[in-house]
């Protein structure tokens, strides 16, 4: 009962802080970690230990699945080279750099222990990355690279972590065996995830217009995928990511519109709560971590933590810029030798490269991996430097979250990077394409026999829509070229007016409901239509902002 009270208390704090974060435009993860730190030192509250099994089995699968399901497979595939360079090679490069630093500069860190620390702090976190970059208006390709990296790199880091811990506990490590094992664990994990993804796609196809069951299946799929892969000692992380990508790819074919609307609401609420709990729990761990240090000099180990944090940040910056430079160099060489090169991409400018290099925030995966270290070795002696590794991991998480999380919006402002959101224009173009295709369908291939009057009415509807969309697209392009601010203000006024009308209609509907002049079933139906219209209006308002 006491634990349940703490959970309710954390939820109340989470909801309150979210309102503050939205109003003040503060980075959501940073605010919650800071709140967790403050709450953790309240003497009346018992220590709330973070169980690594809870993170790996309960929190991680849905968070990864949600991130994967929102990732475009087309964009992920086109950015696979930079994603792989960051998620695999950079993770191992960071592990090695941190291991060298720890071994030579921190007393008592043998090579195996140093590699354990390197593997723990090497992966930027999917949850932290999405929380930090949300709403910053970054380039679409930059977002794809950052989110794609954070989806895949956990598997690389956890596999490296597994072998480093084995080296500490058994005293043996064979590099080539670890390399082959990495390929096996990652490859089979991906295959398991794809197979389970298609099994769930098949199940969704067999369910006909039952949104409750379809939503429940989406909640089940990440856990099935993760546990199935881990059962065979393969990568559960990559299995979940693969399952999420497969289901997202086939979602337009298998989900009914009712299921899509219900699923979106359920998952948005679930991920909001999980994100909040993860970051508050990170902050809550500090008191118990400090107690575990015993008589170890706090200022000294804090200095080591800051040093490791600096290494992780510098290594990422160097690696990202070196990778971007080498890519540009080889592209120029191809042009000189007559090989046809792709078009120069604005995404490769130094500003976007700097944003990718700076966004390397660590999160719950690093902390869970540190806390999951065994208490004793095979001979029964205590795992060496366990509490030090946990504290150092916490310092890296806190420094990267606070320093990089708070400074990223300032960096984007300093670089004068304008938000690049063409979603509205692209949406209008898609609607225009659908309307033109529909008109052609009515004129050429319509299977239902229609009299002339009915056919003209149908065609008139889409001709009017095509005309309106064409004008809107042209107006949007003109506003972009000439007077976008004035156009945005005019659109903003119209949206505000429509929202006021929506409020009036809703108040009128409530009055009619209380008076009982219309049946509840009819009122609920009209209310549902109002909800959909208001959702569309609010989405437009958020785009304008």
Describe the structure in brief.
The protein is mainly α and 545 residues long. Helices cover 80% and strands 0% of the residues.
Verbal overview:
The chain has helices at about 1-25, 30-40, 50-70, 75-80, 80-105, 110-120, 125-135, 140-170, 175-205, 210-230, 235-255, 255-285, 285-295, 300-335, 350-360, 365-370, 385-415, 425-445, 450-480, 485-515, 520-545. By secondary structure, it is mainly alpha-helical. It contains 21 helices and no strands.
Which descriptors apply to this entry?
globular, 545 residues
List the helices and strands and how they pair.
Layout: H1 2-24, H2 28-40, H3 52-69, H4 73-78, H5 80-105, H6 111-121, H7 126-133, H8 140-170, H9 175-206, H10 211-231, H11 236-254, H12 257-284, H13 286-293, H14 298-336, H15 350-358, H16 364-371, H17 386-414, H18 423-444, H19 452-481, H20 484-515, H21 520-544
Secondary structure category: mainly alpha
Please provide the count of β strands.
Answer: 0
Tell me the strand percentage band. Answer: under 5%
Please outline the major beta sheet. Answer: none
**Kindly, what is the distance between the CA atoms of the first and last residues, rounded to a whole number of angstroms?**
44 Å
Radius of gyration (CA) equals 27 Å
Helix content: over 70%
Overall shape: it is: globular
Identify low-pLDDT runs.
337-348, 483-490
Name the average pLDDT. Answer: 79
Q: How large is the count of helical segments?
A: 21
**Order of secondary-structure elements:** HHHHHHHHHHHHHHHHHHHHH
